[in-house]
Design a protein that fits this description.
- It is a single chain.
- This protein is of the alpha/beta class.
- Helix 2 runs parallel beside helix 4.
- The strands form two sheets. It has a four-stranded mixed beta sheet.
- The longest helix has 11 residues.
- The protein contains five helices and six strands.
- The protein has one domain: Carbamate kinase, CATH 3.40.1160.
Length: 135
């Protein structure tokens, strides 16, 4: 990983948890600096380390679909699915390592459209009607 002290602090679990305890917002950017770890896996790892209550995967579609809705008209949106279903049916929410890590840490993955104004605030306030949930 590349340190970027001009932008923010290097990740230290204890420090991140302390910031959260003080009501501060902690933003994770980039990966872990380890090969074979996707940014999704890095996000899931960091969420697990700070005992997050959920992972929000903001993307270009409004949830999880049976197929790519940008390519296939018959794609069906799945409002809820299990992590096992996502892996067994090869539904590309995140890579399997990320999904397995989220499952192991009981972290729901909320998939939403990052371009829909107000989506993140709605999710944080408990409204997941415009998203999909992987549990």
């Amino acid at each position: 990983a590349i340190d970027m002290h001009e932008i923010g602090e290097s990740f230290i679990i204890r420090r991140a948890r302390r910031h959260l305890e003080k009501g501060r917002v902690v933003v994770f950017a980039g990966g872990t600096g380890n090969p074979y770890f996707t940014t999704d896996t890095a996000a899931t790892l960091r969420a697990s380390e700070i005992n997050a209550v959920m992972i929000i995967k903001a993307t270009t579609v409004d949830g999880v679909y049976t197929r790519d809705p940008n390519k296939y008209d018959d794609a069906v949106k799945l409002d809820k699915l299990t992590s096992d279903q996502a892996m067994e049916d090869d539904i590309k929410v995140m890579d399997d390592t990320s999904i397995a890590l989220a499952k192991e840490n009981k972290l729901p993955i909320i998939v939403c459209n990052m371009f829909d104004k107000g989506n993140l605030l709605a999710i944080i306030n408990g409204d997941t009607t415009l998203c999909s949930i992987v549990e």
